[in-house]
Amino acid sequence: MILLKVRNLSGEWISAPPVPGTFVCNIGDMLKIYSNGLYESTLHRVINNSPKYRVSVVYFYETNFDSAVEPLDTIRTRKNGTKKFEKAIYGEHLVSKVLTNFVDV
After folding, report:
1. Which three-class secondary structure string do you get for 27-55?
2. Residue 78 located in a structural domain
3. What's the total number of domains in the chain?
4. Residue 87's pLDDT is what?
5. Stated pTM of the model
6. ∠102-1-103 over CA atoms, to 5°?
7. pLDDT per residue over 41-72, tens digit each?
8. pLDDT tier, 12 (very low <50, low <70, confident <90, very high otherwise)
9. Within-domain flag for 97
């Protein structure tokens, strides 16, 4: 069995069971900033408890390395103008994430 798990706000890994007729779209950090937190960037993992070989096809859609990312005006208007995130430079954010997300074993 293959299990998708997501980390909730309490830091616990919980199962995200499949829902027939749907697909999962994991939101990244930049969409979280663009949406001013309307969409959450959730940590996730997949556990393969099956003896079968598994292939996962992942697609990343990324902005330009030097793009400035900040909450969109239309979203801020819907949230009474409150800006939850400061401007981020995509490439700087990406390098920081890569350098801190992988652990040497």
Report:
1. CCHHHHHHCCCCCCCCCEEEEECCCCCCC
2. yes
3. 1
4. 93
5. 0.74
6. 10
7. 888 888 888 888 877 777 788 889 999 999 98
8. very high
9. yes
